[in-house]
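Human: Here is a favour to ask of a fellow structure person. Comparing notes only helps if you start from a blank page. I am asking you to supply a protein in sequence and structure-token form. Write it directly below this note and I will take it from there.

Assistant:
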Amino acid sequence: MSEGARRGAKMSVLVVTGTGTEVGKTVTTAALAAAAVAAGRSVAVLKPAQTGVAEGEPGDAAEVRRLAGADVTAVELARYPEPLAPETAARRAGLPRVRPEAVAETARALEEEHDLVLVEGAGGLLVRFDDRGSTLADAARLLGSPVLVVAAAGLGTLNATALTAEALRSRGLECAGVVVGSWPREPDLAARCNLADLPVAAGAPLAGLLPQGAGSLEPPVFRGRAAGWLSPRLGGSWEGEVRPAGREWEGAPR
């Protein structure tokens, strides 16, 4: 088998979305990238629309690269200064909107040169990219790629997760699993119960727990622990163990 054919057999694209903002998408994307790099895979991260960041400031793709390592290719398609939904931010700034066709085209080009391409959305699955109402879901459909859902840990997360999963199913998209983007050091009753209930809400396996504060770890420490936060289906080694509240669990920042 040629080198190109061998690489092609390993190529894949994974779309990462969240049930909303501030649920840990970027740190989860960084953990996915770090685990893949540690396994010897080449990785690219694609951020279709970066909002709320001025020119010259590091965005989410740069943060993934900082945490996961300089070997990760970071690509950003559009940047808008105000922290708003991409379509709103683009309109207010008078800048071109992101089209799902451009997202798919760029991801496919990156796939030619990388074993894994991670496409990190902005906000939730159905946040508008453009004036046609296009969303990250449309880009995932064009790519034919599975979508990983990053969810919050506590009260209210089940409904948001179920709605996201229902939107995926209605569009014929595969849910690759659900990851809790920030597992608290002292989880309350709702968070502990959600570990069993989130897979039911998502109709997909619980595929990882990232400890609260993971993004604040020094990058070498983050890279060394990332695989322990993700299940084997995502290239990690986490088998679902969670220690009781108030005690450190496997993979938690130390």
